[in-house]
Amino acid sequence: MTYAPDRLPDHVTLTELRDLALRVASTAATMVRDDRPTRLDTSTKSTDTDVVTVMDTRSEALLREALRIARPEDGFVGEEGADLQGSTGITWVVDPIDGTVNYLYDLPLYAVSVAAVVGSPRAPGWRPVAGAVVSPVLGTAWTAALGLGAVRHDLTTGDTAVVSIGTEAQLSHALVGTGFAYRSDTRLAQACTLVDVLPRVRDIRRLGSAATDLCLVADGRLDAYFESGLNPWDLAAGWLVLTEAGGVVVGPGASEPNTLMVVAGNRTLVEQLRTLVTS
Ligand code: LIP
After folding, report:
1. Minimum-distance ligand 1 atom for the alpha carbon of 50
2. Is 24 contained in some domain?
3. Is residue 4 part of a domain?
4. Is the pLDDT score of 4 beyond 90?
5. Per-residue model confidence as pLDDT tens digits over 182-205
6. With a 6 A CB cut-off, is 98 part of the ligand 1 pocket?
7. Cβ(78) to ligand 1 under 6 A?
8. Nearest-5° angle of CA 249, CA 251, CA 253?
């Protein structure tokens, strides 16, 4: 069976994709947390502060192999490696460590993000259909499948709870997450946007992991989130968790979320915040 954005997997398949995402993301997240060497070997990518650690690479290799074994005909797009073209219409989009700089500094806010998407994440029109975000130090995972809701998992007790978006309607009372790019010219533009936002909201939180930000919004523990410059792997799983929790995730204008801008939260706040950050 081949899936396209207009021909989605059935509920059984969506459940299987979600459970597979949780299983492989949990395995990778546990390895990332428990095997963290005291001295982390790193290299850099787009700038000299855009780091990749040896554990990013190990995590992505583990995810790639586990997903290949489970679903050999699917595609694969990861932050650190080469794209793999599939034949099923399902592509796995993974961030092996979302929040790499936090991980480098041994700060607890990082996650492994794994999503099954239909459509090409390298072009407009793709969408997540199942996914998991696993935060091993917080001991929490969030999962979602299209039309089947979003769930928070306590990784210590195994307890689960359905998550739903917060109801704050007033932007001036909203706790808003955001993040910044690695390039200094982009950061200058982001700082100018922040000047407009900061006086109009309760406060800002820059937690350092987009996937975690999006899941915390889904969970009502942030009221909204915006960021420009996100890649599909930062966005994919958290996007679905948030929309399945009753929220909206949009881009500039009436577009889908994209590299230009992601704005997320309940619809009332998103309409106010999008105007502010895309003007
Ligand atoms: C990170 C994002 C974060 C953003 C950081 C970085 P990475 O992803 O999750 O929201 O502000 O600049 O892009 O690079 O740790 O996978």
Report:
1. 14
2. yes
3. no
4. no
5. 999 999 999 999 999 999 999 999
6. yes
7. no
8. 120
